[in-house]
Amino acid sequence: MAEADIPECITEHERILQEIESTDTACVGPTLRSIYDDQPNAHKRFMEKLDTRIRNHDREIEKMCNFHHQGFVDAITELLKVRADAEKLMGQVTDTNRRLQEAGKEVTAQTEEVIRCRIQQRNMATTVEKLQLCIPVLEMYSKLKEQLTSKRYYAALKTMEQLEKVYIPRVSQYRFCQIMAENLPKLREEIKDVSMSDLKDFLESIRKHSDKVGETAIRQAQQHRTFISTVAKQAGLDHYTKPVFSLNGRAHSHTPNGLLMDDGAGDEEDADDEILTAQDLVDFSPVYRCLHIYTVLGDRETFENYYRKQRKKQARLVLQPQANMHETVEGYRRYFNQIVGFFVVEDHVLHATQGLVTRAFTDELWNMALSKIIAVLRTHSSYCDDPDLVLELKNLIVIFADTLQGYGFPVSRLFDLLFEVRDQYNETLLKKWALVFREIFETDNYSPIPVETEEEYKVVVSRFPFHDAEIEKQSFPKKLPMSQSVPQIYSQVKEFIYASLKFSESLHRSSTEIDDMLRKSTNLLLTRTLSSCLQNLIKKPHIGLTELVQIIINTTHLEQACRYLEEFITNITNVSPETVHTTRLYGLSTFKDARHAAEGEIYTKLNQKIDEFIQLADYEWCMAESDGRASGYLMDLINFLRSTFQVFTHLPKNNNDHASMSGKVAQTACMSACKHLSTSLMQMLLDSELKQISMGAIQQFNLDVMQCELFASSEPVPGFQGDTLQLAFIDLRQLLDLFMVWDWSTYLADYGQPNSKYLRVNPATALALLEKMKDTSKKNNIFSQFRKNDRDKQKLVETVVKQLRSLVNGMSS
Questions:
Q1: How many other C-beta atoms lie within 10 A of the C-beta of residue 789?
Q2: Which of 128, 343, 728, 776 has CB 3.0 to 4.6 Å from 781, enough for a Cys bridge?
Q3: 478-480 and 449-451 beta bridge pairing
């Protein structure tokens, strides 16, 4: 087996040797590795094979060398022969070279100089060429620096754009250009920052100058309105032309770009009166410049958003009023000036720029401002208690609305607000006139007006429409029936109408609307303010019966003068009173109510006075016999009533209505007084604290009631029919007659009959009084003789008491 493998191994070694001989030495490694991977000891056999191959090659080399040796020897021999000639030639060449080098040394130097000059020339040409490319870049960059220094930022941005797109790309390989290119974005940011800083300064500037700009615009509007009003009056026009305002004091129209232009070129009469324009007051160049810069930089939207945001903030600041704004008109004027200035600037920016602010944005700002303005005015006007200040506020609101309306802002809500301010104005007027009326009433002497001469009479008649044929026929001196307060009240009502009319001026309302407003406000004055003052006056404790009678006379004349007030309003407004929707004055009801209240107060005061006299009564209820004459307090009371009812003769009787009215008041007062006196005397008899009454006291009380009846029958006030007034004491009279006559059998027998003699005597009243007299008999007063002399009569009293009690019990059941 081993012997069979030997030939194969030899053949493999041959192949490996051929591969080693034919391949590159770098690839021998894998071949040699395969020798060691074969059978054990294969490498020894390979080494042996390799040695054999080497020896074979050595023999071949030796054979070849032996074959060429003679030719080699011949060649060496010939070479040795040439050696001497070669050395000689070498010497000649070396000498020639030396001499050539020495001869060409100067040429070489000049050649090198020429070469160096040519290189310098080429470098210079290249440098000039490159410098020609770089110089424009440097010039543009220098120009950029100058523009930045002079704050010509928009031009600087244009220069940057040229640098980036045209100049720098030509020499972009140079370092300085790369530095320039890197600096340009930084410069753009610096320009943005600087322009934004200028914009902030601009915003601060317009915030400071808004007051002045607004004042100028409002003054322009006032001048325009005055001019229109003058022209309208001269032309007989009654309409109002909507103004278009500028800020230079002249008429103008809008140009296509929205800026204002003069229609006239007249010179100002006085240079000091020249009205500055918005451009004179505010430099708008920063906002234009910043807008252009941000537009060029492609960041216009950011700028627009920032500008609008800042203006909204400024709008909120402008719309914030001072806490004490309502105290003076200057506070309101400053507030309106700032708002007008703000929106005048916005209107200018709207028309002078393209899209920086839009109409929608200004409308949004105006709507926000309008809501805030209305809320502020509604709040602060409510604090005003001076009608002059409210009127000034109204005038400011009107010119404020007219000014902004000239710039295209809707102001209808402001005119709606004026109706609320009008109500506030009317309230302040009412408060003011309430004080005026109170002062008039406090200073009035409540006596007829004395007139000494015809001139004095004319003065009074000129202030108050008084006409009385009988008084006019009287000779001087004479007296007018009303007191001094009547013409004063009438004049003050007219003054109120004038004051109320002032608010209606410049509101662009029709005559019918003004007439309606005047009548409504006058009605409020009459029905609320004057009525309240009259009611308070009537209730005052120091107002006596005489004053109350004079108040009735005064209200009567004021009531008659109401139709003259209606004519007065008609003459002012030129609105016919027959118009369907014309409001009527309610003065008639006001004065009627006041007169009724005065009448009621007369009745009340009479009763109070009667109570005061009653409190002076000092009856000796256990007296044995009467004094034979009426009590002193009652006589004083009757004398007081007589003198009091004499006052009612002064009530107006110049016509049948007033005569019947005065008679009715006097009769009602007299009847009320008698009834109250009768009731008070009855209560005195039946007072629960009064325990005992003697027959003597009854007799004395009877004398007093008789005086009352005599007073009633003496007709203290004319107009009563028969014994109507005496019927006020009928209850007392029947009760006293019952006890004086001691007619119990008739009373008990006829009780409940319509024709009973003692029909007005109530069983409970008779029982109460009888109980008081019964108690007296127990103490040996009036009934002591009965107990001694006639026991049957005592039993009769007890029987009457029982029967009365049964009647009372029957009534209660």
A1: 10
A2: 776
A3: antiparallel
